[in-house]
Fold these 3 entries.
Entry 1:
Amino acid sequence: MDNKNFNFKIHSFIFNKEIEREKFNILEFGVREGRSTKMFLDMIEKKDGRLISVDVDDYSHLFSNKKWKFIKTRDDNINLISNHFDQNFNIILIDSLHEPAHVINLINMYWKFLEINGSLYVDDISWIPYSKGNWRDHEFTENINFKTFESILNLLNSNIDKFILECNFQGSGMARLTKLSNENLSKPKKIITRNNLIKKLIRKIK
């Protein structure tokens, strides 16, 4: 991922939206170079709070901070991970395995640990840079990012009163789900569009 676009995205779409909170309790899936981890730790230093980061690779050496806990495991190992929870989170970031069904599974799995008005972020929801002829032309990433975006829209379609959805299309894109209700999320409901009907009508007119 392009560093400049990623740094701009996380600062404009996460930092600027969240920095006014009085205290942070953050859960992060996916560490890699630690760019989002560093931003979250900076936010905590400005206010107060705690960060838990989860990754299958060992990144425990990246930072030394008493307010940071690193857990080396799969992101869906909820039995192990939840043992480290002592309160609900106001920020959750999903930036681990970018596969639509897995992302939706994680959202459902950790939704109950997000407090009301908390934000759940999902990275890599824009297919635009990866579309044919575009600057990061890559068919697989184009398809997987589009399907992730579509899956989140389908989730919204069945939970319109349970969260607010905002999307940022800078770089590889990011979605923000703001929690409105403690009710469990309903299963995604496919959005039925009229595009094919319109095409058929045009053919008949011709």
Entry 2:
Amino acid sequence: MARYTGPVCRLCRRQGEKLYLKGERCMSLKCAIEQHNSPPGMHQANRRRKVSERGLQLREKQKVRFIYGVLEQQFRRHYKEASRRPGATGENLLQELELRLDNVVYRLGFSDSRAQGRQVVLHGHIILNGRKLNIPSARIKPGDRIGWAQGSNASEYFKIMEAGIKSKAIPTWLTLDLTQMTGRVLTMPTRQEIDTRVNEQSIVEWYSR
């Protein structure tokens, strides 16, 4: 399945809630949910459908996929890895997604959205433990250090991120050195530290059918 390249605001309207896929725009009155809080398409606002339990589970799975910007096969791999680990599979799944390199770049404030974080990684602007890495899905572990590649800190994009990073909230499982613009993973994020508003148990139930 190819990556979705259409207007991401349609995804938020389809879910009926903000998925924060466009960074700062989602915080403004330009957000599609603020202007059109109804499903996309003609006459969708007047349609009322009763959604089955399976439909709700599928909707929750798709919502998490959209939020983290992963393909179906990638998502299945993350779920399989989460199910192998001890503990609650749903929480393990969110940890797997949070520890992707593109998400950590976003969480550190090096990008305004996960999609932008993915582009920053793909374009070779990020180093992991001193080595350049351009794989957005790379799994980060506690103790890893994330910084900017040589030369990237002179770019206009870096200057914009540096100027606005102080206003961003950094999760407690990460630490950020503002002077060096480098981050480090302190520990595995707990469910309480992950602010993604999803019902992960519904996803477990979907794959347990």
Entry 3:
Amino acid sequence: MPLQGKRALVTGSSRGIGRGIALKLAERGVNVAVHYYTQTEAANETVAQVRARGVKGCVIQADVTRPEDITRMFDQIKREFGRLDIFVSNARPELAAFYQPPLALTLDQWNAAVDSQAQAFLLGSQAAAALMPDGSRIIAISYSPSGRTGSWQPWVAMGASKAALDALARYFAVALAGRGITVNVISPGATDDSVVGRLPTEVFQAIKTWHESGWTPMRRVGTPADIGNAVALMCMDEAAFITGQTIHVDGGASIMDPVFPLPIQQG
């Protein structure tokens, strides 16, 4: 799919990973709808940067945990763009909305996570598919270790929701394969200006030090631009036969073995 002139919606793209995705798509000639919930100033800054790359951009405000807001968001996409070629489901609530360990988690916190991930992807993909020509792209931004680990205890609500999101992407990949619409998951590792960057400074610094010490073989954390590059790659014609897959964009962190200490793994 040559990207020049395509139309994309990136949810949660006022800052962080979402902004990185929006800007990388814009660099390749994609017109981008920048979605946000509360970060109005940041969203306007992102869309200004999108337009500075010579493409069209618009701003859409919506709470993706609310089905009626999702409907309104796609109605606006239809008015602004007429159709949609790329849908990137990336938005999530702020940490305070869901970040509690299992025994302290409230139902409201659980719902904030599930509704922003599994439900938002379900409804968003249904609405996106109705606006998409054959050969379009749907991409979910996830954290795939959530489906097999339980060690990051306060992540439980989001972790379970991301696992459901990953499963939904596979089902949609099958459902839309006949139209040539691919559905894939991008799973970032530790990334600057992302959810881990919102943790206390000393916590994020400890994470960076750990990955720079060798837990990530490339010895750094990722950047929003790294994730944006991966999304752009999955939107190209050359990726038309890749669907239902999870792409780990983490500098190799996901292939490390947690059983062995780093000095043993490093030889």
